[in-house]
């Protein structure tokens, strides 16, 4: 077996989870760095309006890329389960079927979103002054979704086999290229926000190409044969049964953030820029939660496939403790240091923008333990093959966010809109935690996995 492949069904769960999580965390940081780099370069070299334009697209970017990421992560669950069961022919078959589905979704999304670009932005309350920049930026991002889908799928296959380091290395390379291209297009060639968008698409394409070449050279276990690509609608159905709920879960969450962004846009460019800077920082430091979630999904998927439910329980318990510890660090960091961290995106002289970001941090900091727990229980259930309840958690999150926004937007201060995040995080856990304990009690130490893996 290739030495890059990690079997997570044996050994210390804590050591395995930490070793897998650290590259995942760094990979998530560099993946976010695309939009962060765009925001930094735009904010420093073009101005507040450009920062508001690019930064405010974060929720919309999450909606689009989150759907593709959720699909590929859902498809990879079957890959990890069959890998854990040591049935590699079945594993490769599901890899091939995943390629078909990922390509189809990327093409359909590109066509649909290019047509709906301006209507979506109108619904988000963008002013006529900022609309052209946002429309141009998102149009280029939509045109490049095929490379986003390619990277997400290839990286998900590698992680399903326990390799979280290689996707990280490729992201580091492409993130560095993204920064160089951002500066070149904007500072040297005098381009506007479209320069940031082109840099992002090119860099993502490079990361996808690197993943593909690496798999060809180093992962013979993933080398597909002609028979692997034999179309099976039954297999499509099983993949979609996991991928669609995960994609919807990401998208439902993103719809909630889009609604919040639309409410923030009512307050004007100052609050848009402040909210954007705060959101970028929070997403960056909370990538530890995302990394723990992706790690536990692979860990649970492999151990579920091997029928080792006792290891599933142990891994979840240890991960919960680590998430709570990191939450405390974040609470202190963002409450007391958030103001200074915003200077990365905007000049300290823009005091109103900085104060808007600080308002957000002071409103939400206490709820980070709930945010981290969402990733733990949602990804655990997904790794076990249950996609419906995690999607239901996303619906609870959407309802809570929407309710708060409807009550406060335009009627109270900016802080009232910010409170929609804590409300959503708490609401998302309502179906997740009870269902996890119900399933673990029901399954016990059973090795039967046919219901989620067949």
Automatic annotation (TrEMBL):
The chain crosses the membrane at residues 33-54, 60-83, 95-116, 136-161, 168-191, 197-216, 236-261, 281-300, 321-338, 358-377, 389-410, 422-438. It comes from the Bacteria. One of its GO terms (molecular function) is antiporter activity. This is MATE family efflux transporter. PANTHER family: MULTIDRUG RESISTANCE PROTEIN YPNP-RELATED (PTHR43549). The keyword Cell membrane applies. It is found in: Cell membrane. It comes from Mediterraneibacter catenae.
């Amino acid at each position: 077996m290739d030495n890059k492949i990690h079997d997570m069904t044996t050994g210390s769960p804590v050591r395995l989870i930490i070793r897998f999580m650290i590259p995942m965390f760094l990979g998530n940081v560099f993946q976010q760095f695309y939009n962060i780099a765009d925001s930094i370069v735009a904010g420093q070299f073009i101005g507040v309006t450009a920062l508001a334009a690019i930064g405010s697209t974060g929720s919309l970017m999450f909606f689009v890329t989150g759907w593709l990421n959720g699909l590929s992560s859902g498809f990879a669950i079957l890959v990890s389960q069959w890998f854990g069961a040591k049935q590699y022919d079945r594993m490769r078959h599901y890899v091939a079927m995943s390629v078909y589905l990922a390509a189809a979704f990327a093409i359909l999304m590109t066509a649909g979103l290019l047509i709906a670009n301006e209507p979506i932005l109108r619904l988000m309350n963008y002013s006529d002054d900022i609309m052209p920049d946002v429309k141009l930026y998102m149009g280029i991002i939509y045109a490049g979704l095929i490379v986003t889908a390619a990277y997400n799928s290839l990286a998900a296959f590698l992680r399903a086999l326990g390799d979280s380091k290689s996707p990280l290395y490729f992201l580091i390379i492409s993130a560095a290229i993204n920064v160089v291209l951002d500066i070149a297009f904007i500072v040297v060639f005098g381009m506007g926000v479209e320069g940031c968008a082109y840099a992002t698409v090119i860099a993502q394409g490079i990361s996808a190409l690197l993943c593909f070449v690496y798999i060809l050279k180093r992962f013979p276990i993933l080398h597909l044969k002609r028979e692997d690509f034999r179309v099976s609608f039954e297999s499509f159905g099983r993949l979609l049964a996991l991928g669609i709920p995960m994609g919807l879960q990401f998208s439902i969450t993103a719809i909630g953030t889009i609604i919040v962004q639309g409410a923030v846009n009512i307050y004007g460019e100052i609050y848009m820029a402040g909210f954007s800077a705060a959101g970028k920082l929070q997403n960056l430091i909370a990538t530890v939660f995302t990394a723990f979630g992706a790690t536990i999904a692979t860990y649970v998927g492999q151990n579920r496939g091997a029928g080792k439910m006792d290891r599933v329980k142990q891994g979840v318990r240890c991960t919960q403790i680590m998430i709570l510890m990191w939450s405390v660090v974040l609470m202190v960091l963002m409450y007391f240091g958030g103001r200074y961290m915003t200077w990365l995106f905007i000049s300290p002289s823009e005091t109103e923008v900085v104060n808007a970001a600080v308002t957000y941090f002071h409103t939400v900091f206490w709820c980070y333990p709930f945010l981290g727990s969402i990733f733990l229980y949602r990804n655990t259930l997904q790794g076990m093959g249950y996609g419906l309840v995690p999607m239901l958690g996303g619906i609870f999150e959407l309802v809570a966010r929407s309710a708060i926004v409807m009550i406060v937007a335009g009627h109270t201060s900016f802080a009232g809109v910010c409170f929609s995040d804590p409300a959503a995080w708490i609401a998302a856990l309502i179906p997740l935690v009870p269902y996890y304990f119900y399933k673990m009690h029901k399954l016990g130490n059973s090795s039967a996995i046919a219901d989620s893996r067949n």
